[in-house]
Amino acid sequence: MSERVLMNGNEAVGEGAIRGGCDCYFGYPITPQNELTAYMAVHMPRHERVFVQAESEVAAINMVYGAAGAGARAMTSSSSPGVSLKQEGMSYIAGAGLPMVIVNVQRGGPGLGNIDPAQGDYFQAVKGGGHGDYRLLVLAPASVQEMHDFTAEAFDLADRYRNPVMILADGRLGQMMEPLTLRTREPERVEKTWALTGKRGRAQNIVRSYFSVEGVLEKNNLALQEKYRRIAEAETRADCYRMDDAELALVAYGTCARLAKAVARACRADGLRVGVLRPVTLWPWPTEILRSHLDRLKQVLVVEMSAGQMVEDVRLAVEGAVPVHFHGRMGGGVPSVTGIRAKADEIMGRISR
Amino acid sequence: MSERVLMNGNEAVGEGAIRGGCDCYFGYPITPQNELTAYMAVHMPRHERVFVQAESEVAAINMVYGAAGAGARAMTSSSSPGVSLKQEGMSYIAGAGLPMVIVNVQRGGPGLGNIDPAQGDYFQAVKGGGHGDYRLLVLAPASVQEMHDFTAEAFDLADRYRNPVMILADGRLGQMMEPLTLRTREPERVEKTWALTGKRGRAQNIVRSYFSVEGVLEKNNLALQEKYRRIAEAETRADCYRMDDAELALVAYGTCARLAKAVARACRADGLRVGVLRPVTLWPWPTEILRSHLDRLKQVLVVEMSAGQMVEDVRLAVEGAVPVHFHGRMGGGVPSVTGIRAKADEIMGRISR
Amino acid sequence: MAKPKKRYRLAVDRERCKACGLCVAYCPKAVLELSRDQINAKGYPYVEVVKPEACIGCQSCVWVCPDCVFELYEVSAEEGARP
Amino acid sequence: MAKPKKRYRLAVDRERCKACGLCVAYCPKAVLELSRDQINAKGYPYVEVVKPEACIGCQSCVWVCPDCVFELYEVSAEEGARP
Amino acid sequence: MSETPVYTRPETLTDRPMAYCPGCGHGIAQTLLAGIIDELKIRERIVGVAPVGCAVETYNYLDIDMSEAAHGRAPAVATGIKRARPDLVVFGYQGDGDLASIGLAEIMHAANRGENYTTIFINNTIYGMTGGQMAPTTLPRQKTQTTPLGRDPETTGHPMRMCEIMATLDSPCLIARTATDSVANIRKTRALMLKAFRYQMEGRGFSFIEILSACPTYWRLSPKDSMDYIGQTLVPVFPCRIFRDRGAES
Amino acid sequence: MSETPVYTRPETLTDRPMAYCPGCGHGIAQTLLAGIIDELKIRERIVGVAPVGCAVETYNYLDIDMSEAAHGRAPAVATGIKRARPDLVVFGYQGDGDLASIGLAEIMHAANRGENYTTIFINNTIYGMTGGQMAPTTLPRQKTQTTPLGRDPETTGHPMRMCEIMATLDSPCLIARTATDSVANIRKTRALMLKAFRYQMEGRGFSFIEILSACPTYWRLSPKDSMDYIGQTLVPVFPCRIFRDRGAES
Amino acid sequence: MKDERVIFSGTGGQGLMFIGKLFAQTAMEFYPHVTFMPSYGAEVRGGTSHCRVVLSGEEIASPVVEIADSIVVMNQPSLDRFLPALQPGGRVVYNASMVQAPDMAGGAAIGPPATEWALAMGDIRVANVVMLGAYVRLVGIFPFETADRAIADFSAAKGPDAQALNRQALKRGWDAADRVESA
Amino acid sequence: MKDERVIFSGTGGQGLMFIGKLFAQTAMEFYPHVTFMPSYGAEVRGGTSHCRVVLSGEEIASPVVEIADSIVVMNQPSLDRFLPALQPGGRVVYNASMVQAPDMAGGAAIGPPATEWALAMGDIRVANVVMLGAYVRLVGIFPFETADRAIADFSAAKGPDAQALNRQALKRGWDAADRVESA
Ligand SMILES: Cc1ncc(C[n+]2csc(CCOP(=O)(O)OP(=O)(O)O)c2C)c(N)n1
Ligand SMILES: Cc1ncc(C[n+]2csc(CCOP(=O)(O)OP(=O)(O)O)c2C)c(N)n1
Ligand code: SF4
Ligand code: SF4
Ligand code: SF4
Ligand code: SF4
Ligand code: SF4
Ligand code: SF4
Ligand SMILES: [Mg+2]
Ligand SMILES: [Mg+2]
After folding, report:
1. Span G4-177: which CATH code?
2. Which chains touch H (3 or more CB pairs under 8 A)?
């Protein structure tokens, strides 16, 4: 049987990466993800893999670009301000079609903000904080176990689609400890015929996103869009908790999804039909999954640690079919179970009226 | 009467900034906006104002942050990859509530892409490419005249709201020359009691976005959201061209809006009721203005040089009331009048059926 | 008669003290000690002036203290000293 | 009899030439000139070997040419030279 | 009985207790800074730029106008302020992670442009704020959170000596390294900082004062041992001297 | 009649004509590079990193595996490649804007870590690709698009001498500046580049070859005058010499 | 199996994280669901710091303790802040050296003068372990031997002297907990 | 007032931007709406380059010339690329030194050997001005004197020799345009 240990989310990500076959980690310290960098500093060398503390987030993301281009499973992690610095690099990686994993343990913003948990980087992660038309595959874990599992799996997904995968977590998930069952599954390996290995008898390989000849860049764009369609088709995931007969859906991801579940449980105990739809992939967003519940739903309440960024994706999914409400906090504030419940009651009151 | 000159859009921005009272310009070369940096190199010193070629886009945005903090009207400009590098800085500026103007003369992406015109940075500009909950006021000029006028006005807007203002243009608008009437209006000046001037007898001023004491950052967030509400109320703008009786609305901004107008004219000539709704502010997006036409509209066609990023805002506005179509090109490709017309015809065909 | 020995008073802002002990270590006259039984609101056993009379006003404590705990005054016994 | 003078042949890839003139300037024997009336597909009046016999094979043209226009061969008149 | 003040707390220093660890060198440097601002009577026309690092909230301790800067970008922010308002006295206060790692390009270019402001560089060979990771100035074999077996120069490089690097540039007017490990050295440090501000006020351009400074917490030494460590272990790698003094030359 | 080849085009060079301006130094350097790759027989195990600059499409001319890098980040990209695949021979090819301006932190830190790869640094004192703006290496009074009255060292700084800066770091094994302004110097340049690759293959770590190189277009000089300008005007500011050679020392 | 939600709080240097983590780790043997949540406080030094441990038989939706079953407070601000979060009948372990006895309507309170005792033991840093000892006895999840073994394991790396000191501090706290002040 | 939409095209170094801009600037006196659109080509040197000028009595919706009234082409790839964009009856001015005479169904074509002439005049760089001269005459918007004044103004900064050479080149082109090949 597999091991059960008490770990915090950051360390769980680190161990998940190692078990997911991460060959190279490039990081730069920032709270609240330092335990991850520290974990990699200890454990990557023990596995004879590469750990480099880069001189900055910009350097780290470009080291990842280099290592991924050379065919390695490469990863970086940071928190909000540091992830902003990586946006040019993310766009390059997406444009060049390189697989890699990036972890954002979000903190309060904008600016230096604070180091408490937040979900204010949703737009950046999901719509694209860098320039040009590209998408990250964004996974949103909600427990230390998922921090571990999703990270390991992210490497497989990245390789499968030659696409960057982001683990979008928050300071709470990074810092909290929970018992964790360590992953034993082997990574899926794909052959990387496109990688830089020295040309060794074949035609030259080039890792590039620059296409100066008219029309060629657009072809690359169309191919990317086609890939995104495939990803959306195959990889969209959500976790539905008691949604079958729900009249009110709480839509929340990550830390907020745990809270939403507690609220749903309490509501159910009071005889109220409340369910939770938790997007597991934030991009592709589980639009169809939410839509499949629209016939029964009367209200939707989005719970976030932001000004309501995900509300847009929820509204795009329901297209006016039911009212979409929002309860959230910002700047490191985390919604409370009582706060969410109060909002839910307010909405349910409307339902019964 | 005011002067009429032949200028390209980049130079028009430069002269607009100077006439808008820009005290300090910090830039770094990148195509297709080099003429702007070059213009400032020549003309800012002539007006005894500050021109600095920064060592990078990161340095440039942080110089702007410094100068704006000291009360100056400050500006930077770049093109897509360079703007991505500025995302951390933008978030800091927004968080600290500093007024400034940033110009993005977009090019093909993602990555190094190419230097042809594109609108693939819409999400970055409008949703926030940096971390945390913040908003830029985004203006989208569609002519060399507007490149000039909007830039000048941007400084007033920035000061009025202590908020960064972005001019979101593209390579075509930057490079094309048109005759231009130079602005003669005086800039609006506001007193900056919050600026760093040495404390001079008052309590210390601090330019900051870091609030480590629990709850204080959230207060800053709430104040920002309240400001965004005020901006949305007062500054939302769109240009409606023959929308009064339109059954098909073409929704497009910047370069694409010019093309859309030509298509609308041609359609009208053929007796088809086609109008153009051109958002002038991309954030705040003119949701209500589009909604006010929903009773007559049968179809909406969004035209963009992207994979359809603005489509989301259009869909959020119409909420399923009418079908929203898309025609676009990417990677430096620019839709043609004929291509848009063909799509419009296809849609109108559906209408008549 | 020998030059009259100058006298000094150290004003200690206890609440600022973090008991780092640098002043104690650098005081040439063992004037200072960390408290053995008292702590301030932050929980530090703050510095105490245990031999005030030994102080020679050298300011070592002042200079090394990272928390600017001290002020130093020269005390002149002015009992009709200046006519 | 004096050591027989070596002979060389320069192969010129006209289409690569951009008429920068560096080879002309650095050739010690004035072997090369830019064309006065011919241009290549890119519109450059490409380099011509006007005095092939004067070439001493010094490779100066080869080294300075930024566009790798030249190849250089030593030509040996082998009419029964080696028995 | 009457009392003559020999030393009183600088007026520029606020009453707020500093949030640094016991024995931290930031406290010494900032107390000096406050005193210098008093002495030069520039409290009403100085603007400071705080780093991202343990000293981020310096504005809580110095009662002057201040700006935060993104991590490493204090030189760009200071450039922006000073170019916009050349009448102000401007300083940047940066740690070794901030200045020598992420912000290396910015400090080098501000120095190279000869921006007329003063940099106070606190070299404690560690990332304090984030919990003790390797800095570019970390010593060989020094244990940190990211070099758990000690820094290995083969894979992570040798300590970067910023004054020496700085001295390859033509523009700076004053480049010096000093330490706060003894009363004498603290006094010297103050004199150098004072000179740097004077030079700025005379329009001489960029000045750079590197201060070897204790981080007892992540050196895992007592405050006193940290002081000794500076002299015994840091100074041999980072010699304390004046690398350039244009004022003395002219 | 038979012919013996004295010089034939390097096999590593593709047939595509180079898109550089007439007389551009990039062409000379890249032809040398191709020849060296042939000579060392490493075409099948070398990976190059192209800069953002006129040489961005170097992969069109060198028939080897290559990666683009974001502007200034070639050292980070090269680090990533080499760390992932230490068996490869890796080089970064960078211009002066790329390396000394936006990418200064990356090149310094890659050098300081002693990353075992080779940097070819093309110093043409200008931003070629973007139309002739000031670079950190632009000479005082040199006119560029962003210094229309000539570079003023008072406000824009003095030319940065990268070899001299590099030489303050302990790790690099070879640091040298050379030029391509004469046949002799081109040969010397080749020899230095060759040595750099040899050192890398011997595992000696980071090597740095700075090449003073012509940009006739933005110097607004003829190709021949550009060559003369290098020797007469550039070399006095950027002396050509070997700043460090660990191989020679040992 | 009753849920236990406890907050440990004090200033940055007082070692709250250490005892919280030790408690959570030890409780893993007794509860299927455990969360430990540090307050990682301001990035700068010296703020107050607390951590929360939740033990439950069921899936724990929130590691944040909004209503606490117990609070362990090392200084006055911690008590002031967290007492309102204590549910009626809850437990308070307070450091009597720095905290005034709480005014409680019910529940149990113990106030070992942990800082003084620790100073007396020669190392102020073991005050936290005194507190832990008292709390562990009060909450009654595992016996003294389990706690003793845990502290011994956790402090082994610090050397035998430190280990002995820690065990002594734990015992001191444990012993103190028979004098519960209010119930 | 008839709209004119013209494409100038050639390789990077052939000075197409210069003549396009000169033409647009001069035409501003004659048309209320003018756009000049360079192809700023690849960031690297040496690609083909073209620019487009639109003159109109009405607001110009698009500065992009999808269907051209005239094309001025300095090299063969330019002709090959833009001939399909020429509307029936349109004008072609081609550099006969480097471009084969186009196969046209109608319209007007002139082919001055501009490169050769320019080489003969001693500076290959004025080939563009030869082309401009021919085009300006062919399109007939303004008289020779206006064109001559414009080229004189534009080239004044380059010194009197260059100015004279440019004017001479313009004249050469203008004169060539009486031999229109097809109509
Ligand atoms: C972009 C970004 N990256 C990383 C961080 C996290 N961070 C905060 S302070 C710091 C380093 C502090 O070290 P140093 O500059 O040496 O200052 P010290 O705390 O030692 O005084 C880091 C990496 C951040 N806030 N922003
Ligand atoms: C982030 C970013 N900033 C700016 C640019 C624009 N840019 C392209 S090349 C270049 C400078 C090129 O100069 P140099 O490195 O000296 O190379 P050269 O062209 O002279 O060989 C710049 C600024 C870019 N592509 N990306
Ligand atoms: S002034 Fe000198 S003698 Fe007096 S207490 Fe301070 S250090 Fe000791
Ligand atoms: S140096 Fe200052 S903080 Fe340290 S013990 Fe002495 S008075 Fe207290
Ligand atoms: S090899 Fe020497 S002599 Fe022969 S053509 Fe070339 S440069 Fe002239
Ligand atoms: S050096 Fe090369 S490109 Fe230049 S003229 Fe000679 S052959 Fe042509
Ligand atoms: S961590 Fe180090 S640098 Fe930071 S406050 Fe503590 S002692 Fe000072
Ligand atoms: S612009 Fe300069 S560096 Fe670039 S290709 Fe032309 S000559 Fe070479
Ligand atoms: Mg430090
Ligand atoms: Mg260059």
Report:
1. 3.40.920.10
2. A, B, D, F
Per the CB < 8 A criterion, the answer to whether A55 and E136 are in contact is yes
pTM of the model: 0.96
Within 13 Å, how many C-alpha atoms sit on residue C73's CB side?
11
Q: In the prediction, which pLDDT does B1 show?
A: 46
- E94 pairs with which residues across the strands? E121
Range(s) of the domain holding residue C31: 14-81
Mind listing the domains of chain A with CATH numbers?
2-235 (3.40.50.970), 239-352 (3.40.50.920)
CATH of the domain at C61: 3.30.70.20
Q: DSSP assignment, residue G124? A: G
Task: Report whether pLDDT(G70) > 80.
Answer: yes
| G158-167: pLDDT as tens digits | 899 999 999 9
CATH number at residue E211: 3.40.50.970
E20 in a domain, yes or no? no
- Considering only CB atoms, which chain F residues are within 8 Å of D66? 18, 20, 22-28, 31
Q: Above 90 in pLDDT, residue G38?
A: no
Rounded mean pLDDT, F171-179: 98
Give the atom of ligand 8 at the shortest distance from the alpha carbon of F124.
Answer: 3
Confidence at residue B277, expressed as pLDDT on a 0 to 100 scale? 98
Whether F199 maps to a domain, the answer reads: yes
Cα-Cα-Cα-Cα dihedral of A284, A286, A291, A297, to 10°?
Answer: -140
Q: What is the DSSP-derived secondary structure letter of residue H74?
A: S
Which of B53, B58, B61, B63 to probe by mutation at the E interface, max E CB count within 10 Å? B63
Residue C3 counted as domain residue: no
Q: Look at residue D1 and tell me if it is in a domain.
A: no
Q: How far is H21 from chain A (nearest CA, A)?
A: 23
Residue B227 has pLDDT above 50, yes or no: yes
- Which pair of structure tokens corresponds to residue C70? 């001290």
Q: Output the DSSP codes for A181-202.
A: EPP-PPPP----TTS-S--TTS
Chains touching G by CB (3 or more pairs below 8 Å): A, B, C, E
Q: In Å, how far is E171's CA from the nearest CA of chain A?
A: 25
Q: pLDDT tens across A332-353, in order?
A: 999 999 999 999 999 988 554 3
Residue F131, domain extent: 26-249
**Total of domains in chain E:** 1
Type of residue numbered F224: K
- Is there a contact between E69 and B89 if contact means CB atoms under 8 Å apart? no
- Identify whether E169 is part of a domain: yes
Q: Report CA(C44)–ligand 3 centroid distance (Å).
A: 21
Distance from C-alpha of G136 to C-alpha of G145, rounded to nearest angstrom: 11
- Residue C38, domain member (yes or no): yes
How many Å apart are CA H114 and CA H79, to the nearest integer? 15
User: Could you give the number of structural domains in chain D?
Assistant: 1
The answer on pLDDT for F224 being more than 70 is: yes
Would you say A331 and B218 are in contact if contact means Cβ atoms under 8 Å apart?
yes
Q: Measured between CA atoms, how close is F151 to chain E, in angstroms?
A: 11
The ipTM, to two decimals, is 0.96
Q: Strand pairing of A137-139 and F174-179? A: unpaired
Report the mean per-residue pLDDT for chain D: 89
pLDDT of residue H179: 75
**pLDDT above 50 (res B352):** no
Question: Which residue's CA lies nearest to atom 26 of ligand 2?
Answer: F71
C4 found inside a domain: no
The string of pLDDT tens digits covering residues B319-347 is 999 999 999 999 999 999 999 999 999 99
- CA F214 remoteness from chain centre: 12
- Which residues 13-52 in chain C show a CB within 8 A of chain G? 36-37, 39, 41-43, 45
* Mean pLDDT lowest among A284-288, E214-218, H102-106: H102-106
Asked whether the beta carbons of residue E145 and residue A53 sit closer than 8 angstroms, the reply is no
Interface present between A and D (3 or more CB pairs within 8 Å): no
CA distance E130 to F244: 36
